[in-house]
């Protein structure tokens, strides 16, 4: 295997950037991780996944001017807890929001969990003050979905991970004329294709970033270690711009693996998991990720470095 002297991702020395202690004490937040992120009017808006000690999940917005120091708003996002359909399929559990800007609208695909297992659900906002729930956009057994930032061949597009068996799954692409009805689904790649460290399951992470080389796509890959526990790492690939079911290149190596204490120790040990990244105008990428399902972290890399990684340079 070829090796580069440059690390692919550099962890921020102030990690973790958010923990439960940063939220108002009365909210009793224990864990904050796997948050969505987007830049809105020069402010970094993080849609945090937070959990309290009763294991109730909420989305809670935290804002930052520099992408590293975040201040949570006084209250969590108000999603329609009382909508009968929303209630039937969420039982108070919704998580892993992935935010994508399409035109002037910000869409958030997230997992919603109930006795019916997990479905993808869609929320939209124009200003991060009012949120509109648009409905469920998958059947059960699908918990990782992310929208592309623009239509492809006239249709909205998304990557997701329908489970293809007990605790296994591959990355698929689907298309939609209206973001609600999805079809033309194709498998993009399977958990054993191209990478040796993700034989259990793979799923999309951050919204794909458009580059001249293709859609730069950061994903998670999971392996079952010693038959007992999952290890979650992050990988990167380039998908064809016009036909994202085609993988143009993929890094053999993981771009981030659990190594620091805050990634190895927590409510789920050995997990780095991303729901979002910000690509800056100068080519830098801030990659936001959850550590051990407990804390929120960030690392930096660049479009150029990730494209090199995809070609194993
Ligand atoms: C996945 C998701 C993530 C979580 C990860 C590791 O299936 O549920 O929310 O971070 O497992 O536990």
Low-confidence stretches: none
Order of helices and strands: EEEEEHEEEEEEEEEEEEEEHEEEH
Quaternary structure state of the chains depicted: single chain
Q: Structural class, from secondary structure content?
A: mainly beta
Looking at this structure, what is the CATH superfamily?
Glycosyl hydrolase domain, family 43
Identify the bound ligands: beta-D-mannopyranose
State the total count of DSSP E strands. Answer: 22
* Straight-line distance between termini: 10 Å
Outline type: globular
CATH topology: Tachylectin-2, Chain A
Q: Report the C-alpha radius of gyration, rounded.
A: 18 Å
Number of helices: 3
What is the average of the pLDDT values? 94
What profile does the largest beta sheet have? 5 strands, antiparallel
Kindly state the percentage of residues in helix: under 10%
- Quickly give the CATH architecture: 5 Propeller
User: What is the count of distinct domains?
Assistant: 1
Task: Kindly estimate the percentage of residues that lie in beta strands according to DSSP.
Answer: over 45%
The CATH first-level class comes to Mainly Beta
Task: Provide an overview of this structure.
By secondary structure, the chain is mostly beta strands. It has one domain: 5 Propeller (Tachylectin-2, Chain A). 6% of the residues lie in helices and 50% in strands. The protein has 3 helices and 22 strands. The protein has helices at 84-90, 261-264, 303-310; strands spanning 10-11, 29-40, 43-52, 57-64, 71-72, 93-102, 105-114, 117-125, 132-136, 142-147, 156-165, 168-169, 171-176, 183-189, 201-204, 209-211, 214-225, 229-239, 247-250, 272-279, 284-291, 295-302. The strands form 5 sheets. Strands 10, 11, 12, 13 and 14 form a 5-stranded antiparallel sheet that branches. A hairpin with a 2-residue loop joins strand 7 (105-114) and strand 8. The longest helix is centred in the last third of the chain and has 8 residues, at 303-310. It is globular, with a radius of gyration of 18 Å. The model has no long low-confidence stretch (mean pLDDT 94). Bound molecules: beta-D-mannopyranose (BMA). Beta-D-mannopyranose binds next to strand 6. Beta-D-mannopyranose binds at residues 34, 95-96, 143, 232, 268, 271, 273, 290, 293.
């Amino acid at each position: 295997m070829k090796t580069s002297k440059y690390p692919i991702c550099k962890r921020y020395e102030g990690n973790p950037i958010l923990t439960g202690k940063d939220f108002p004490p009365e909210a009793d937040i224990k864990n904050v991780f796997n948050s969505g992120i987007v830049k809105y009017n020069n402010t970094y808006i993080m849609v945090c996944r937070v959990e309290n000690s009763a294991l109730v999940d909420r989305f809670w917005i935290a804002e930052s001017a520099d992408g590293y120091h975040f201040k949570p708003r006084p209250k969590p996002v108000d999603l329609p807890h009382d909508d009968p359909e929303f209630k039937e399929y969420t039982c108070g559990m919704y998580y892993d929001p992935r935010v994508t800007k399409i035109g002037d609208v910000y869409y958030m695909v997230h997992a919603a969990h109930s006795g019916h297992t997990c479905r993808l659900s869609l929320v939209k906002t124009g200003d991060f003050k009012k949120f509109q729930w648009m409905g469920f956009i998958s059947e059960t057994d699908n918990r990782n979905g992310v929208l592309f930032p623009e239509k492809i061949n006239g249709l909205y597009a998304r990557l997701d991970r329908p489970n293809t068996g007990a605790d296994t799954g591959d990355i698929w692409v689907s298309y939609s004329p209206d973001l609600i009805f999805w079809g033309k689904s194709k498998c993009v790649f399977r958990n054993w294709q191209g990478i040796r460290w993700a034989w259990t399951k793979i799923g999309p992470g951050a919204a794909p970033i458009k580059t001249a080389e293709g859609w730069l796509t950061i994903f998670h890959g999971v392996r079952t270690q010693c038959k007992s526990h999952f290890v979650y790492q992050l990988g990167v690939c380039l998908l064809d711009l016009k036909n994202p079911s085609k993988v143009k290149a993929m890094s053999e190596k993981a771009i981030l693996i659990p190594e620091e204490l805050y990634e190895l120790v927590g409510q789920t040990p050995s997990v780095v998991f991303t729901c979002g990244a910000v690509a800056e105008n100068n080519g830098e990428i801030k990659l936001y990720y959850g550590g051990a399902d407990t804390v929120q972290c960030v690392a930096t890399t660049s479009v150029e470095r990730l494209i090199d990684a995809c070609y194993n340079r």
